[in-house]
Amino acid sequence: HNLNNSLVKMLCVFICLLLPMAIISFSNKFSFQPRYTIVVDSRRKCLQFERTKTLYNELASTKDSESTSTPISKTSSGTATLKSSTVNLVKNCVGAGVFSLNSRVSTITTNPADLVYVGGLVGLMALWSAYNFYIVGETCKLTDSETLGEAWSKTVSPSTSWIIQSVVTIAPMVGCLANTIVLTDVLTLALRVAGLPSAVYLNRPFVIALLTGAILYPVCSVKDLSGLKSTSVLGLTGQFAAMCALGKRLWDRSYALPAGKYVAAVAATAASTSRKTATVVAAAATNSLGSSPAATAVKGMSLSTVLANPKPWFVLASLLSYCYVTHYNAPRYFKELSGKEQDRFSFLKLSLFAYSAAAVVYFSTIVLAYLLFGSGSSSFALNSFSPKDPLAVISLLAFGTSVLASFPLMFLSMRNWFISKAVKIKLFNPVSNIPNMTALLLSCIGLLATQIRDIGKVGSLSGALFGSAMMFVFPPIMYMRAIWKTKDTHSNPLGLRVILIANTVLLASGLSLGLLGTWNTILSLMGKKI
Fold it and tell me: pTM of the entire structure?
């Protein structure tokens, strides 16, 4: 009875994500599948395997440029340039979580001077992520692997490849849930701006039903998603538009006390949506580039103070893990990159350029949103804007459009995995087609989104549980195993030992980060002070 409601909701999320996979995987082990079955009908006989063949042809015709599970042909020659791959990877890194970081930072410190430590953590996590992204590509090169699961099977054990597959499947699930939360907020604002009554746009279940039924289902049900492949530029444009809106309003002091243009509107909105007006007023007091007396009179934290209480920083690191994790796509980027035969460091350059750019975007967003909204910021920063602010409305709609464009690409790999399993089990045959499985999965995601509003909590817990494993644990394990199996081909034994020792240290650090991040995130969700 003492558990916090948010923790219960988060546990329900992961139960709902894991239970269907567990049921299907368990059923597969005990279900006998003949080559074909003669189905006797009162009117005719048909071969049921024709239906399965047709379904797999439909799946094969549906390609996804950002799929986490579609293998790459061994005959594929890299055609993607370093520049285009970098842009795509930056968009892959910078997703819906970009505007959720500042609210976590505001729980750690109320002094803008402490943002230097935040920048250090963002940069350190980016470099760490870039290196591990690079060694995934190196592992694929050493083992001639096409997917992360295949690389794990060749380096560690085929019998444990289900671990990788489970994490790779859960990643797009969590991403779709986070994107649904963002799109719900965007649609709510759109309905409000359109002049609909508050009984409509404040009815969250209705808004989510409208979103999933009228928008997401038609987009996710189409067989050919090739028109959505080149969404990286569109997505980055929407995110930069929102960042520009933050910068503009910080510059013109529209949200600063005492005479900010939209301060009264924000307070009125807070009161109408049952948020405490005092919180908003306190948030506004920290605006204007930290120029309030309280902000300038106190010096920032010392490094010893940060090290003395690192627990809240582990929670922020967990959220950054969720934001940075794209390592399940590393085999695809490695295969598609051109010129890696001539320049053996080209994939390393791709990793460093992309993650450095992502770090700049993340830290810039943190600074802008933190200085503009302060400690009273919503968990999704753009929700802190006044709905009467035209610039904010435009930026939120632009960001929502970029999220909507990338949603089907993320949803596709999850849906195809479930269909490939359900088609083998008689019990699940009614949903083993694209329309029905799409409707079922969107309904589950929508049901979860009705109960969960805080994208930061989703990102923190999923980052601690899955992001850390995918980004900091699995890559060094596979890389060290791949190097050890090919140790006879190395001409520098000392260099080999240095690489193994360094990756062992990184592996131990990754395990520690995952365990401590998970524990402190759970404590935070329970409402306990950390």
Answer: 0.75
